Protein: Amino acid transporter transmembrane domain-containing protein
Amino acid sequence: MLAVFSYPLQIHPSRASALALMNLVRPSEGAHRWAAVTLLELVGSLLIAITVMDLGKILGVVGATGSTMVSYILPGIVYVQTFRDFHLRRSLALGQLILGCIIMPVCLVLLFL
Structure:
């Protein structure tokens, strides 16, 4: 029961984000696009569930990308975009952003070695 009712709650924000990004590239409203994105996400998650034997790898990828984004990349982007004047804190925020862009791929590569 938990899986049946939690999956729609998890797929909704993902589908909304994908549709918003698609509308930036090519504006279009309609049920066909909504159905195509939903079907793609359902089939993609089914294929991942069928092919992945070790859930630890998936959780590692989610942790490596999510924690790096929240801890390094997003705060750096927000600070750099908010404060346009050049000063030491802006330079440190830019350094944090660059460091996050280095840490994430390194963690993902080390996860699969």
User: Anything to note?
Assistant: The chain has a mean pLDDT of 90. The two ends are 37 Å apart (CA to CA). The helical segments are 2-25, 31-51, 55-82, 88-112. The CA atoms of residues 37 and 105 lie 27 Å apart.
